Amino acid sequence: MTTLTRRATLIAAATGLATPALISGASAQTAPTETLPRVPYRRLKLGDFTLTTLLAGTRPMTEPQTIFGLNATAEEFAALSAEAFIPADASLNGFTPTLVETGSEVVLFDTGLAPEGITAALTAAGVAPEAVTLVVLTHMHGDHIGGLSDGTTPTFPNARYATGKVEYDYWAGAGNTGFDAKVRPLADQMTFLADGDSPAEGLTAIFAPGHTPGHMAFRIDSAGQNLILTADTANHYVWSLERPDWEVKYDMDATQAAATRHKLLGMIAAERLPFIGYHMPFPGVGFLEAKGEGFHFVPASYQFDL
Fold it and tell me: Are 159 and 200 in contact (CB under 8 A)?
């Protein structure tokens, strides 16, 4: 495990530095900081690995049905929200990269929207950006690639990079300014992945398209214990999990995204695997149980502390 630094007690400042918006494509913007401080990391053990979820920012949203449940009626959306004890007219979106320390590698999955957010969360967790040896990008939306650099200086100077080949090729031809500024300059240091490839020990890519053309989830295996990083397969713990067929504004292929949700989330539920979702309620760790036409999110409690 990475040694804690003298700044490991930073809490409020860590999460207040970047509060990004859920966005389409690889563009980026910042938003006002949240007012309530919270510890911006959660460390847990998985076999011989140490996993740390990192809160790189949050952003409140109004009128969430302009993003989630596009093919649901207002009445259906309100009823499901009420059942889950959440408002139908507001939500809080979180951005949660995950650090995996294998013993030989320090692997960061996704980077948040800006360098300030991810470095603040890492600092609070006692990890220097220089300690990261591999950055894995699940896909190229701006809230996942934004922390790679300030447009000039890489945030993780000692890291190499890995991402899906299908995803990279799509954005390389898209004329996207965020991709061109943050990802394309790293091409010479990039390993390209296909379904089933392993970017590092104990990590396996799972092709999970729909949200973007080459979106990937990842399986983490260590000493007989397993966990799935679902990335943006599902973007909300109620509106995407309970109703996997509800369309999401930022899914580039809504039909394929729904099929991927059913397949991947169904596997997680059937095998009773823990998972980490990038936009699940922080710390983003939980389990799924089949419920009606979808899945019920069960937040992790002390399972990883025993």
Answer: no
The answer, yes or no, to whether residue 255 has pLDDT greater than 90, is yes
Burial class (CB in 10 A: 0-12, 13-18, 19+), 45: middle
> What separation in angstroms does the CA of 164 have from each of 65, 137, 170, 188, 204?
30, 8, 10, 14, 12
Strand ranges of the sheet holding 41-46, from the earlier edge strand across to the other edge: 41-46, 49-54, 98-101, 106-109, 134-137, 160-164, 190-193
Q: Which residue has the tokens 């996942």?
A: 144
Note the pLDDT of residue 37. Answer: 58
Q: Distances in Å between the alpha carbon of 81 and those of 34, 77, 94, 196, 250?
A: 23, 6, 18, 36, 20
Place of tokens 């860590």: 14
Token pair 């302009």: residue: 66
Transcribe 178-216 into DSSP letters.
Answer: HHHHHTGGGGGGEEEE-TT--SBTTEEEEE--SSSTT-E
How far is it between the farthest Cα atoms of the chain? 52
In the block, tokens 């590092």 appear at 200
Whole-number pLDDT of residue 256:
98
- Whole-number pLDDT of residue 306: 86
Q: What does each C-alpha distance from 127 to 100, 106, 113, 216 come to in angstroms?
A: 12, 10, 19, 25
pLDDT averaged over the chain? 90
pLDDT above 50: residue 29: no
What would you report as the CA-atom Rg of the chain, rounded to the nearest whole angstrom? Answer: 18
pLDDT tens sequence across 86-116: 999 999 999 999 999 999 999 999 999 999 9
Which tokens hold the place of 18? 């970047």
Whether 119 and 106 have beta carbons less than 8 Å apart is answered as no
DSSP E strands, the chain: 41-46, 49-54, 57-62, 90-95, 98-101, 106-109, 134-137, 160-164, 190-193, 203-207, 216-222, 225-231, 275-277, 285-291, 294-299
